[in-house]
Amino acid sequence: MKRSKRLFQYMQDHQQEFLEVLEGAVRRESPTEGDPNDLIACRDYFAGLFREIGFHVTTVKSLDPRFADHLLVEYGAGAGRAAEELAQWLKTRGRFPVPQWEPSVGGASRQLLFGGHYDTVHEKGVFGDSLWNIEGDHAIGPGILDMKSGDVQVYLIAKAFQDLGLMPEGARLAFLLTSDEEAGSYGSSALYQALAARSKAAFIMESSVGVEGDYIGGLKCGRFGRGNYTFRAHGTPYHSGLNPTLAESGLIELARQAVRLENMTYFDKMNPQTSEPETLTIGCTCLQSGNAGWPTVPGDGTLTIDARYSNAAMAERYDQLFQNLDAFNPKVHITTEGGIEKPPFDKDLPGNRALQVLAKEVGGELGIEMHPSVVRGGSDGNFTASTGCPTLDGMGTTGGHVHQLGEYINLSHLAFRSAFTAEMALRVLESN
After folding, report:
1. What pLDDT does residue 108 have?
2. Parallel/antiparallel/unpaired status of strands 111-117 and 201-204
């Protein structure tokens, strides 16, 4: 029997164990900005699971004090070395740039990096008493798809390697479980980049992609970059009853900017220089100015936007435009805060392409046609890929209603998704 089929059989035989472990994680509600004790309880739960099966476990301090600490677990040759190297890099952080992946370092590494997070978007209590339900082919609960099921997959994959004697000699698994992905990874993005630079590849255990995520063979091979910007208008207020035309209105200025910026959106426009299609989306997310009922035309105001770019060159080009936004009214001054939050994850980098080819081969062995897709949402894969580390995302489970009440995973897909990721991991670790 082929190894991939043995892994599939193992995952089928251990599905009940998977669900029991997952239920424990889901019942430990862990909203990103919730009670710190809830986040600690969830992190400690995962730490205990991995420690029990022989992982080296390290708590890594968040780089942003607003968020809880992270978890780095390692298994295999030199377990604990990734934590040591990360600690050494953190001592020099600020004096040296974020490291980049090099074939002579990352490419020669025997370390595979898994990426996950234990925080969720769901406020504690919104699911009421229904924190865990099985209904037909669905398991339902807060954060079950995004992404506690993906986290538990790594646990079961490691157990399979142990029980079946498959862990390659000299290889190491490193799994970073963060606390702040849903808020933008402000306290962990640099950790991902530092670890990715010393890893052969990175697998991000976010959920799959498809129509409500229900296609068994979906993957995410690229992601748009994201920029968050706040524009502040500084004009001159005036009494709205005496003579509103004498105001240099920040409200009017930002309203005009909002229309202008959203009209910049375009889809699949061919770049004549690269002969590649490009997409830019700009969403105005908040406009604040003045006070309802006050007899004043406001001079000041703020406008925030969410910008998504399909490639790095676009991100830099539009970032420059947003940082130097021209006002319609020369008597209103505009300042810009923010910038590129997540760099684009380019599907066409050679290492990423190689993983996509491998995914189709492994999926075919298991009887499933894999469909890698580029998506506009961001993840920690943006950060690992930005270093040049070969990255494949959406390696987790399938399901739907993500970030909603009723969030679910498909039980009938679990064995395939876990066996597929396990075989992919072994192929990468065994490659030269």
Report:
1. 84
2. parallel
Q: Which residues of 268-295 are buried (b: 16+ CB within 10 A; e: fewer)?
A: eeeeeeeeeebbbbbebeebebbeeeee
Q: Domain 225-342 has what CATH class? A: alpha beta
Strands 56-60 and 133-135: unpaired
Residue ranges of the chain whose pLDDT lies below 50? none
CA distance 237 to 249: 6
- Which residues on adjacent β-strands are paired with residue 59? 71
List pLDDT tens digits, range 120-174.
999 999 999 999 999 999 999 999 999 999 999 999 999 999 999 999 999 999 9
Q: What are the distances in angstroms from CA 307 to CA 61, 260, 289, 302, 343?
A: 30, 13, 21, 16, 12
Q: Tell me the CATH class for 3-224+346-430.
A: alpha beta
What local confidence, expressed as pLDDT, does residue 103 receive?
A: 84
What are the boundaries of each domain within the chain? 3-224+346-430, 225-342
pLDDT recorded at residue 213: 58
- Tokens describing residue 390: 């070969």
Both structure tokens of 135: 């209904």
Residue 9 — left, alpha, or beta (φ > 0 → left; ψ -120 to 50 → alpha)? alpha
Q: Is the peptide bond before 147 cis (omega within 30 degrees of 0)?
A: yes
3-state SS, the chain, equals: CCHHHHHHHHHHHCHHHHHHHHHHHHHCCCECCCCHHHHHHHHHHHHHHHHHCCCEEEEECCCCCCCCCEEEEEEECCCCHHHHHHHHHHHHECCECCCCCCCCCCCCCCEEEEEEECCECCCCCCCCCCCCEEECCEEECCCHHHHHHHHHHHHHHHHHHHHHCCCCCCCEEEEEEECCHHHCCCCCHHHHHHHHCCCCEEEECCCCCCHHHCCCCEEEEEECEEEEEEEEEECECEECCCCHHHCECHHHHHHHHHHHHHCCCEEEEEECCCCEEEEEEEEEEEEECCCCCCCEECCEEEEEEEEEECCHHHHHHHHHHHHCCCCCCCCCEEEEEEEEEECCECCCCHHHHHHHHHHHHHHHHCCCCCEEEEECCCCCHHHHHHCCCCEEECCCCCEECCCCCCCEEEHHHHHHHHHHHHHHHHHHHHCC
pTM, to two decimals: 0.92
Name residue, tokens 């992609």: 209
pLDDT value, residue 117 = 99
What's the pLDDT score for residue 105?
Answer: 83
pLDDT of residue 97: 73
